């Protein structure tokens, strides 16, 4: 799966609108028999989750670096941030159910919107199985983190090959 994710990330960098994710969903179905609802759920969790985690963890790290947030509180907040999706889904809250309730049937057609709603339900159920079980959530976080580390290493190696170096500037 790492080569497919890396390939999708490469296509994402070359095309607008994250087209690589659509290619990855197709490849997962064609080569591994993974349905679109499952791969769509994974993509949604990765993208939305990654943005949420990156922004939130960066804010926590920045506030800790500035001395505004004591380190022990930062650790507690980081753990709460990691567990938040599991808690939300364990409480039975379904974020995509909100999207399904948006009245777009007149705009895109009632039958089409109903099919989209059914797909959103399947994606939401799949997300619940991914993040609702702590073991699945931990596995997902570790594997996704590993994929991001590999991807970052690739970018650094390409940058180095092109003569670009990245240096952290600490004050």
Brief synopsis:
This protein is mostly helical and about 170 residues long. The protein is built from eight helices and no strands.
Q: What's the arrangement of secondary structure elements?
A:
Elements: H1 2-14, H2 19-32, H3 36-65, H4 71-90, H5 95-100, H6 105-108, H7 110-132, H8 134-161
Helix pairs in contact: 1-2, 2-3, 3-4, 3-7, 4-7, 7-8
The number of strands is 0
Helix content: over 70%
Q: Helical region count?
A: 8
- Cα(first) to Cα(last) distance is 39 Å
Low-confidence stretches: none
Q: How would you describe the shape?
A: globular
By helix and strand content, what is the structural category?
mainly alpha
Radius of gyration: 19 Å
The SSE order reads: HHHHHHHH
Largest pleated sheet: none
Quick check: average pLDDT? 81
Strand fraction: under 5%
Describe the structure.
This protein has 171 residues and is mainly alpha-helical. It is 81% helix and 0% strand. The chain has helices at residues 2-14, 19-32, 36-65, 71-90, 95-100, 105-108, 110-132, 134-161. Helix 1 runs antiparallel to helix 2 (19-32), helix 3 packs across helix 7 (110-132) and helix 7 crosses helix 8. It starts with a helix and ends in a 10-residue tail after the last helix.
Descriptive terms for the model:
mainly alpha; single chain; 171 residues; 8 helices; 81% helix; globular
């Amino acid at each position: 799966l790492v080569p497919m994710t890396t390939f999708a990330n490469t296509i994402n960098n070359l095309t607008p609108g994250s087209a690589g994710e659509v290619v990855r969903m197709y490849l997962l179905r064609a080569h591994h028999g993974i349905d679109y609802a499952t791969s769509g759920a994974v993509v949604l969790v990765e993208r939305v989750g990654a943005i949420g985690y990156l922004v939130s963890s960066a804010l926590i790290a920045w506030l800790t670096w500035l001395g505004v947030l004591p380190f022990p509180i930062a650790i507690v907040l980081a753990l709460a941030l990691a567990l938040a999706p599991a808690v939300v889904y364990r409480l039975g809250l379904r974020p995509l159910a909100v999207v399904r309730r948006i009245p777009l049937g007149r705009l895109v057609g009632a039958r089409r919107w109903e099919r989209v709603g059914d797909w959103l339900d399947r994606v939401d159920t799949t997300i619940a199985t991914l993040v609702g079980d702590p073991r699945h959530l931990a596995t997902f976080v570790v594997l996704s983190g590993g994929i991001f580390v590999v991807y970052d290493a690739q970018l650094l190696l390409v940058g180095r090959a092109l003569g670009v170096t990245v240096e952290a500037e600490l004050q």
